[in-house]
Specification:
240 residues, mainly alpha, Arc Repressor Mutant, subunit A, Tetracycline Repressor, domain 2, 2 domains, 0% strand, elongated
């Protein structure tokens, strides 16, 4: 008969369990932290610090080894977390890709809001709006090739929901620019701004994927291509 201390029956706890609400609340807590909210406590800051380690490790691993060459175990080891803890914050590598995207895009989007001002030309406003994204992608093309390749189809995880939120916000900002152009009389008054915004966004997404295929993508080349395609697209929306 085995004793109570028998290791065959005694569970080994390598790291404290993580509360089940952590992943769902991650983006809310991160938003509070970035805004300087006082209610973010030490416990929440510790969670964010752990997620930042995981995200940084995943970013480096994907950039150096590619998506297929990276393992969850390698990321956990570099982030100094247990594999089980990593699995809670991200169920698989695709979740980690979304985690990287969701951390990277908000600062880029803030720059886009400031740069993308309508001043009589919708093509120029759209070019200015998307310039920060082209610039960020050109700085780390290998990483963003992985991110763009793997975020087309995604799960229903909290990371996927945040991805959808960012995409919806981006399309909404493009819609506002098209709305301003319509109000200014640059384009036809009956243009569906919602459909127009989605069309421009999908055009941007396609141009970026094509542009990133180059070994060393140059910002101006990508923007020139995008601007030319926007001009071609918008020519059909202009008033006679």
């Amino acid at each position: 008969m085995r004793s109570k201390a028998d290791p065959a029956r005694t569970p080994v706890v390598t790291e404290p369990a993580v509360e089940p609400e952590t992943t769902g609340d991650l983006y809310r807590i991160r938003g509070q932290w970035r805004s300087g909210a006082d209610e973010v406590g030490l416990r929440e800051r510790n969670k964010l610090e752990k997620v930042e380690r995981i995200t940084s490790a995943a970013r480096r691993q994907f950039a150096n080894k590619g998506y297929d060459g990276t393992t969850l175990r390698d990321i956990a080891k570099e982030a100094h977390v247990a594999l089980g803890t990593l699995g809670f914050y991200a169920e698989n590598k695709r979740d980690l890709v979304l985690l990287i995207f969701n951390e990277t895009m908000p600062p880029i989007l803030e720059k886009s809001k400031k740069a993308g001002v309508y001043e009589g030309s919708l093509v120029e406003a759209l070019s200015k709006f998307f310039r920060p994204a082209f610039t960020a992608y050109a700085e780390k093309p290998d990483l963003h090739r992985t991110v763009l390749r793997e975020n087309v189809f995604h799960s229903r995880s909290p990371h996927a929901r945040e991805f959808h939120r960012i995409r919806t916000e981006t399309i909404g900002l493009v819609r506002d620019l098209i709305q301003q152009a319509r109000a200014a009389g640059e384009i036809r008054p009956y243009i569906d701004v919602e459909l127009g915004a989605r069309t421009v966004f999908f055009l941007f997404f396609a141009v970026v994927r094509w542009w990133l295929a180059a070994e060393r993508p140059e910002v101006e080349l990508g923007l020139t291509e995008f601007r030319s395609m926007c001009a071609l697209l918008l020519d059909g929306m202009k008033r006679d």
